[in-house]
Amino acid sequence: MKIPARYTGTAIALHWVIALLIVVNVTLALTADAWPDDWVRPVIDTHKSIGITVLGLASLRLLWRLTHRPPALPREYPRWERIGAHAAHLLLYALIFAMPLSGWLHDSAWKDAASHPMTLFGVVPWPRVGWVTSLDPAAKELWHDRFGALHAWFAYVLYGLVTLHIVGALKHQWIDREPELQRMFPKKSPQAIS
Q1: What confidence tens digit (pLDDT) does each residue in 89-131 have?
Q2: 135: domain CATH number?
């Protein structure tokens, strides 16, 4: 089987859509308290909807990745860099799943969850995690705090890892002079080049 030189169009699209949604969600989370009072609930609900959307898209991305071989890293990269890149990608995948799952669990343990049904983008009803919603109020409050702390901890790890991912890609592109970014951007059609 030939190893491709670049990611497939589907992998590229999923990568950038997920990345954009994560940036929007981080922005919403970090600015939620700055919004006017009557906007806070819609901002939080949008944050939840985007998180569940990322979970769905990440599932598609993982399935695509398991059935479509990615381009190999250049042989010129030192062994430690290739191992680090693979480890970082695995951790990114884990975090892209852990973030929305921990957020979903956090929301499911919210004391007011029963009076505020969750709907994706105000349209599609979305269930909460049953075993969490059925906990007694004291246990629910405890788990709400724990899942919230876990969600925040995952977020900080994700911020750091995404920063390393971007810095690594830019280093390979501009310092090592490897066509790193071209592997994850759509290919220009020959007609577009003049």
Answers
A1: 999 999 999 999 999 999 999 999 989 999 999 999 999 999 9
A2: 1.20.950
Percent of the chain with pLDDT over 70: 94
Q: Is residue 1 part of a domain?
A: no
Question: Which tokens in the block code for residue 11?
Answer: 């992998």
CA 79 to each of CA 28, 73, 178: distance values in angstroms, whole numbers, following the listed order: 38, 10, 16
pLDDT of 183: 81
Going through 49-176 in order, the beta strands assigned E by DSSP cover 119-120, 124-125
Q: How many structural domains comprise the chain?
A: 1
Domain assignment present for residue 2? The answer is no
If phi > 0 it is left, if psi is from -120 to 50 it is alpha, else beta; for residue 118 that is beta
Max CA pair span of the chain: 67
> How far lies 128's CA from each of 141, 180, 182, in Å?
15, 40, 40
Average pLDDT over residues 36-60: 96
The boundaries of the domain holding residue 37 are 9-184
Under DSSP, the state recorded for 34 is G
Q: First CA to last CA across the chain, in angstroms?
A: 34
Quote the radius of gyration of the chain (alpha carbons, Å): 20
Statement: residue 184 has pLDDT above 50: yes
pTM of the shown model: 0.88
